[in-house]
Amino acid sequence: MRTLAAVIAAFMVSGTVAFGQGDVNKILGDAREALGGSKKLDALKTVTVAGRTLRTLPNGSSMEGDFEMALELPDKFVRRDVLAAMGNMSTYRLSGFNGDTPINEIDAPPMLSTGNTVVHMRIASAGGGDPATMTAEQKEAARAASLQAARRDFSRLALGMLLTLPSYPLTFTHGGTAESPDGTADVVDVKGEGFAARLFIDSKTHLPLMLSWMDKEPLQRVIRTAGGPGAAAPAGGGNVVVMGGAGTFTATAAGPGGQGAKPPSQMTPEEREKFEQDMAAQLKELEAKRRTVEFRVFYADYKAVDGVMLPHRLQMSVDGKPTEEITFEKVKVNQKIDPKRFTVSK
């Protein structure tokens, strides 16, 4: 992984990209052969993965957790990640889609506690709004946005595995050749509905190396402590924690040790309204400060699974900083998947 990152970094730093009218069909054809050949790839219907994630948090610490993923072509995908952990309890995020229905849920338990700290998790809409107060039109717009976001996330994860995605039509054009002292990579521009990225394919092995795209940076964690500097405490006392990827999730916390601290579920209507207003103001402030930065997914450790070459390690970075590494420990292809895994429960 270190060598891969160094090679890609050399490509990006050197900025040596030769643009021309390359044969993108040949580039993709060679890549498909390297991944196992068109016959094997076309016969691929399901993939299930179990593994581990190592996530770098904004404060410099790291969090390790379980990772699961299942896809059933052409239009079913779900992944399960640890969203938060306190003590021996964890909250999981389920994301993906089942046809035209987005999957965006928090797995039980929705509330974690340790000592005098209580963290209450909830899912906001794709735009950060509270579904409980949205109109029918706003809910439909949020559903459509959530579905598109899930399909984008799936494409970014799966392009290094499949190259073509039946449920999300994409167009490919030649973007040039990236050169570095360590080798060359063919650059393919990939576009779809609300989707634009650059795929780097090793010119020697013909295996996908990296996907790069531009997007708003994720929301960072914000902590406001009761009586802390610069801000009044929220109703009910304690801390407020706002965190999430691109505004998808919010979390509220009471404590630690704050006298009279309590979670939103125990607040009076007036306290809850004040609490929600305070959180909405923080989210608005964070949203206004978000920059557009580069995101990257590195694909590595390709191994054959039933004749198909699949990456067994993914490394993500945002604005040049590592954010997450996923290791595939168990990978199965063309196994029957229980339909319940793609069921939306809420």
The helix content, as a percent range, equals 10-25%
Secondary-structure element string = HEHHEEEEEEEHEEEEEEEHEEE
Mean pLDDT, to the nearest integer, reads 75
Strand order of the largest sheet: 1-9-10-11-12-16-17-18-2-3-4-5-6
Output the structural class: alpha+beta
Low-confidence stretches: 11-21, 112-118, 221-260
How many helices? The count is 5
Number of strands: 18
- The end-to-end distance, rounded to whole angstroms, is 39 Å
Largest sheet: 13 strands, antiparallel
Shape: globular
**Rounded Rg:** 22 Å
What fraction of residues sit in β-strands?
35-45%
Write the layout of secondary structure elements.
Elements: H1 2-14, E1 17-18, H2 24-34, H3 38-42, E2 46-56, E3 62-72, E4 76-86, E5 89-98, E6 101-107, E7 111-114, E8 117-123, H4 136-162, E9 171-180, E10 183-192, E11 195-202, E12 208-216, E13 222-225, E14 239-242, E15 249-254, H5 269-289, E16 292-305, E17 308-318, E18 321-333
Describe this structure in words.
The chain has a 13-stranded antiparallel β-sheet. A 3-stranded antiparallel β-sheet has the order 7-8-15, with no helix packed on it. The protein is built from 5 helices and 18 strands. The model is unreliable at 11-21, 112-118 and 221-260 (pLDDT under 50). With 346 residues, the chain is an alpha+beta fold. It has helices at residues 2-14, 24-34, 38-42, 136-162, 269-289; strands at residues 17-18, 46-56, 62-72, 76-86, 89-98, 101-107, 111-114, 117-123, 171-180, 183-192, 195-202, 208-216, 222-225, 239-242, 249-254, 292-305, 308-318, 321-333.
